[in-house]
Design goal:
Layout lengths: L1 E2 L3 E6 L4 E6 L12 H15 L4 E6 L26 H23 L4 E5 L2 E3 L1 H7 L3 E5 L3 E3 L13 H4 L6 H10 L3 E2 H7 L4 E3 L2 H16 L3 H16 L2 H15 L2 H13 L15
Parallel strand pairs: 3-4, 4-5, 5-7, 6-8, 7-10
Antiparallel strand pairs: 1-2, 2-3, 8-9
Length: about 280
């Protein structure tokens, strides 16, 4: 579909499955300032077009990503790191929130995002993975809150999202020690849904899972993601109140009839894509 210096983006119009592949293996798929808006814009464009039913986020090379490139912290490439005055600190806050919003785009998209991790998922890459709906990994994968090793607090979402994915104590131990959580441990604590033998098996499993999701009503999938996110971020009573409004907005008896017929006949349904988003 399109390429950037950071990733390749493909979209299968027949299935609605998109694949975003980090493609700087020679740099361990590290992130620099240009990566964030490129990712945000790619995900938002897919969402606005309405044709994507699921996104697979993967990588090329030995490692998923080593996170933020260390040379970024030298300051030359990120003037926002100058905190010498009150005005510059205020600008830092705005700039950091914009970086956070780039990963928020994954959480806010109407389609689910499957993150397929091979090798290291380090620092900012863990922030990225934590913003996805589902995580899978290969047997050689490991996850680490790398920031603590360089004297900083992880600040792009892992400390906020990890405690809602893994037990609170585990998230805190990861944050305080920067320990490497290997694949089988990640599976045991619920950080990933499955561990596959190698990168090839990981890609195949991600594709199979994506195909299962893409075969469902995109309207029902989008509604399910909204409801799950609401339940994650609010109490049960608030989430149930939101569910009454959500269901009244998206309940579609024709869509259900089509889904029931497909389920009974064991044949794929030809669901309409989601409506494109018009921001004027």
């Amino acid at each position: 579909m399109s390429d950037t210096p950071y990733f390749q983006l493909e979209h299968d119009s027949a299935t609605g499955i998109a694949r975003l592949t980090l493609n700087r293996p020679e740099r361990m798929n590290t992130m620099d300032p240009g990566f964030f808006p490129a990712l945000r814009d790619a995900v938002r464009t897919l969402d606005e077009e309405g044709r994507t039913r699921v996104l697979i986020l993967g990588s090329s090379g030995k490692h998923f990503s080593a996170g933020m490139a260390l040379d970024v912290f030298a300051g030359a490439t990120m003037p926002m790191l100058d905190l010498s005055t009150a005005r510059k600190r205020q600008a830092f806050q705005t700039g950091l929130r914009r970086l956070m919003a780039c990963f928020d785009a994954l959480d806010e998209a109407r389609f689910p995002v499957i993150c397929a991790v091979q090798g290291g998922c380090i620092g900012g890459a863990l922030d990225l993975a934590a913003a996805c709906d589902i995580r899978l990994c290969s047997a050689d994968a490991f996850f680490t809150v790398q920031e603590i090793h360089i004297g900083m607090v992880a600040d792009l979402g892992s400390l906020q999202r990890l405690p809602k994915i893994v037990p609170q104590g585990v998230a805190r131990q990861m944050a305080y020690t920067g320990e490497r959580v290997a694949a089988e441990r990640a599976l045991a604590i619920g950080l990933v849904n499955a561990v596959l033998p190698d990168a090839q098996a990981l890609s195949l499993h991600a594709n199979e899972l994506a195909a299962q999701i893409a075969a469902k009503s995109p309207l029902a999938i989008a509604g399910s993601k909204l409801a799950l996110n609401q339940a994650r971020d609010h109490g049960t009573a608030e989430a149930l109140a939101q569910m009454t409004l959500l269901q009244s907005a998206i309940f579609d008896i024709d869509e259900m009839s089509q889904a029931i017929d497909a389920w009974k006949s064991k044949q794929p349904a030809a669901f309409e894509p989601l409506a494109p988003l018009d921001h004027g």
